[in-house]
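Students often ask why we bother encoding 3D structure as a string. The short answer is that it lets us treat folding as translation between two languages. Here is a chain of 332 residues written in the first language.
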Amino acid sequence: MEKKLGQEDIDALFAAANVTANAVKVEADKEPEKYIFSRAGQISNDQLRAITTVNDLFARNLMHSMGAWLRMPFRAKLVAGEQLPFSEFLERLSAMAYICSLRLEPLGAVGLLELDLALVAPIVDVLLGGVGRAAERREPTDIEEAIMRSVIEMIVQELTLAWQAVGLEFAFEKRETEAQTARTMTLGEKTLCVSFEVRMPEVQGVVNLCLPAVVLNAILRKLIAEGDRPRRRSKESVVRMRELMADSRVEVLLQLPAVRLRASQITALEPGHVLRLPIARHESSDLIVGGQLMGKAQAVRTGEHRGARLETSQIAAMLQTPDASTSAMRIN
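And here it is in the second language, the structure alphabet:
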């Protein structure tokens, strides 16, 4: 049947066509997006998430190693990680801070580690036999400087252990003055700044890590690839896992297939009555282990117990048994 369009239908069609034409025109008039060279070296969100995982691992390891070394509570927690120009990092430095330069191998780059001077006095006090009392912020003496070098080396060692998955190693170079710190990188260079909060019984402070973002990009891509790759267990771990699981107990069920019966047959049941099932005598049952179907089996007698004679090789493939067709499993 032929359909006639009214004036309202014609107006609606023209209106829709105009909207489509305007949308196409706006899309055509859209100018290409300009590339901003200042964004070079910017770290993506996926890379930041990978960095957070690594730095969480570093904080936990540092907490345990320093706590065991100092023999006192030592808490380290990741607070923040952000990208900043190096000039902004310099502006955030406190007036009195313990700053060290770190060499990043094999990248050949230099990073910075800032330790709050409020943490220096209690750490030195503990290592000299004290109880870790807090003191006013001041420049460390020559003896305290030598003691703090071993502390920094332990922190750097934990950094290397956290980043060893991608082959990045940290090495302590020397303590830097404020003027030397400003010459470590160019002021406009993008940096990755990570802050950790450190708590001791009588004092708390921060540890800041500043790394050049540009040289980290290749390492971070490798880190993400390593995280997405499924981990392979060694043969020794597989053997050990099988040994530990060998003595575990699982629920095993030998179950006949479901059938339908008349309700009158069910209501007529009495003790001693034999219920005839519409199942062939030689039909196999389902062997279910831990709620999972493992294959087909026949109910058999094994001495004074009942058993299941396996008829399919599905369980052999899952349990890796050489000959499942002749094996028997006891059903309690």
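Translate back mentally: The CA atoms of residues 152 and 325 lie 64 Å apart. Keep this in mind for the problem set.
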